[in-house]
Structure formats: structure tokens, C-alpha cells
Amino acid sequence: MPAVEILKDVYWVGAVDWNIRYFHGPAYSTHRGTTYNAYLIRDEKTALVDTVYKPFTGELVRNIEEIVPPGDIDYVVVNHIESDHSGAFPEIMKLAPRAKVFCTQKAADGLRKLYFGDWDFNIVKTGDRLSLGRRTLTFIEAPMLHWPDSMFTYVPEEALLLPNDAFGQHLASTFRFEDQVDGSMLMEEAAKYYANILYPFSSLVLKKLEQVREMGIEIKMIAPSHGMIWRRDPGKIVAAYLKWAGGEADPKVVIAYDTMWQSTEKMAHAILQGIAAAGVEAKLFKMSVSDRNDVIKELLNARAILVGSPTINREFLPTLAPLLDDLRGLKPTKKIGLAFGSYGWGGGAVKAIEERLKGAGVELIEPGLGINWAPTEAVLEQCVALGRRVAEAVNAR
Question: 48 and 76 in contact (C-beta within 8 Å)?
Fold first, then answer.
């Protein structure tokens, strides 16, 4: 994709990755591809903010060449050193050998260890400024959003925030701006991004947004490192982050389960029936055919998670393990839940699920429901009643 002028003399010079389907190794599904956004600012001095994933170095260089010779770049700002944003950094520095690098101390340390080189590093802290001429770059440290080296770059003259991974979405498109794509789909991708990457840092998100407010920073445009640029209503994504980071959620239930001979599946559907009968929204996911990243995205805006499995070797089915492992690391806030399942002789799945949910910070609202062999009509009625109680608990939050 060619370079795009997003503001006067401010250009998107990144790359579009149409075919990527898993990100962070196999950790994150990207059904709609992604972008690696980099930005070039022309002034009396020229600054490049971030680079791209190494396989897209050629695309980045071509886009820069549409605007200036790469050797004319005076400053390279590294907001974040993860490979999808710094992979092209060594090549850019070869093409712009005079360029000074502006980043945090941890970023400088990491770049040396990632790429086995040394450059003209200028270490910045929150509030430090770099004049380009008519414009100024203001730096804001943002550790653990989502790596220790992370920072934001702000252009006060344009009220432009360049926050790297914050406010991003994995979405490949020929368009560059949020008002050019379907809004519902965009917010789904933004929610999925937050839930699967930033969730465990929610308290830091709240603190950073409060700090930005206290600094009196006006924001008219947010240009993240992935996906669309927020130009029409950047306040919409900021408000969403405040909601998600604060643990606010809708009266909704996520039911994640798997089944061996349909006993647990029958329980799941009966519980769903009880929740629906009480007028509460619920979504049902059979994990052997569901994407765990999409399930986690649904949980972001839900108040409760129910997890069900039959027992195998005193444990739950392995198809549930990736979801439960992720939840333990992501630590979703203000969630309630419970476990359910079936067993033949020894049991153990319900207890094992409960331990995982507690480890993820989920509040168990009542003891799990485990049934022996196939559910009778009476047991299914118990499941419906359980669903009604879950709905009551959700509405009480």
C-alpha cells in the first residue's frame, strides 16, 4: 500500500499484512489480517516514528521514498521494540546513518540485544520534548502497555497521539481511518485486541489515561501501530478503554464447554435455557470448534463465565486448557462464574476447573455442578434452575 498523508506533512508509511492468521506465534488469531503502522513527520527535521515487521521492510522503504530519501531522516522514534514494530529498524538505520534514535532506556537495551548493534541512542522520559521545527514531539513513558520499553509519542501542535500498541486492532484494509470501515466490526477487533493483549495491564491502562488527562493533553487523532487511525471520534476508543480497564461489563454470560458423549453438552444447553428464560444474554462456545481468542473477546463485555467438561483422567478435556491457561494469565476483572460437568466414576473435572477459575481471579458464585453419567430430566431441570440463578447473580452486579 502506498504512503497516505494523514495530516499536513504527517504520513502513514507502514505495511498491510493481508495473510497473517496467527500473531504472537500461535497465541492470537487474526482472522482479518493486520497492519504494521509507521509514521513519517516532515518539518525542518524529519522524524520516523516506529518501523514494521522485518518481512515488510521493502514496503516501508518504498513508502518513505515517496516522500523523502531515507538518508534525510534525522530522528527515528522507537515507541516499542517488539519485532512487529522494530524488525525493519536495523535496515532503516543503515539507510539513515545520521539519524538519532529516541526511545526509553529499556528500549535501547532491548534493541542492542535483539539486533546486536549500537546506535546513537537518546534516552527519553515522560515530558521530554524534541523539536522538529514547527512541530514538537512529546514523549510519555508507558511501561507494560504492553512491554516494559513502551512509550507514547504526542504531537501537541496537531493534537496527535502515537501510542503504538494501545488503541490498536488487528485489521488489514485498503483504508487507513476508522470512519472508512464498518464501525461494529472495528470495535469488535479493538475489543479482541484489548482482551487478549492488554487485559492483564488494566490497572496500568487506567493510571496512564489519568496521567494523560492530568497532563492536559488534547487528542484529536489517535494513530496506533495496528489497524485503523482514529480521526473522527478518538474519544470513542478512549471511552471503551476506560470501560474495559475498569471491569465494566454488560449483563451477559459466556458458557465455554466441551463434551465427550454429549452429557456435558446437554447440561450446557439446559443452563443456557435457564439464563435466556430470565432475560439475560448468553453465548455458548464448544471449545473443540471455537477460537479461544474470540471467546476471551466475548468475556471482556460479559459479567460471568461458566466452564463445563466431562472428566478425563481426573481432569477436564484438553480442549479447554488453552482457554483456562489464558484466563489465568489475563486476569479478567470483576468476573463471576462456576464450573459444571459430568463423570463416570472418579470425577475431578469440576474441581479442576474451579481451581483454574479461582486462579484467574473469577469469583465462584456457588459450588460447581457435577453429575454422574447421563443427565436425567430432573438433572436437566436442575441445570435450568442453575441458569436462572446465574442470571440473577449477573443482574445483581
Answer: yes
Domains and CATH numbers, the chain: 4-232 (3.60.15.10), 253-396 (3.40.50.360)
Mode of pairing for the β-strands spanning 151-155 and 136-141: antiparallel
Catalytic residue among 53, 80, 158, 326: 80
C-alpha cell read off for 65: 521514498
Q: Is 80 a catalytic residue?
A: yes
9 is catalytic: no
Residue 146 a catalytic site member: yes
> Which residues, other chains included, contact 279 with Cβ-Cβ below 8 Å and sequence gap of 6+?
391
**DSSP string covering 4-71:** EEEETTEEE--EEESS--EETTTTEE-TT-EEE--EEE-SSS-EEE----GGGHHHHHHHHHTTS-GG
Cross-strand pairs, 139: 153
193 catalytic per annotation: yes
Residues in the chain: 397
Contacts of 262 (CB under 8 A, 6+ apart): none
**Owner of C-alpha cell 470501560:** 243
As given in the structure block, the three cell numbers for residue 13 are: 508509511
Q: Has 24 been annotated as catalytic?
A: yes
Stretch (H or E) spanning 202:
helix 202-214
pLDDT band at 1 (very low <50, low <70, confident <90, very high): confident
User: 85 an active-site residue?
Assistant: no
Mean pLDDT of the chain: 97
Average pLDDT on 355-373 reads: 97
Is 82 in the active site?
Answer: yes
Please name the residues in contact with 183: beta carbons below 8 A apart, sequence gap of 6 or more. none
Set 17, 50, 59, 84: catalytic member: 84
- Residues 276-295: tens digit of each pLDDT: 999 999 999 999 999 999 99
Q: How confident is the model over 135-166, as pLDDT tens digits? A: 999 999 999 999 999 999 999 999 999 999 99
CA 16 from chain centre, in angstroms, equals 18
How much is the pLDDT for 304?
A: 99
> What does the CA dihedral 210, 189, 153, 120 come to, rounded to 10 degrees?
130
Give 138's contacts (C-beta < 8 A, 6+ positions apart): 127, 128, 129, 153, 154, 155, 156
Q: How confident is the model at residue 178 (pLDDT cuts 50, 70, 90)?
A: very high
Report phi then psi at 188, rounded to 5: -60, -45
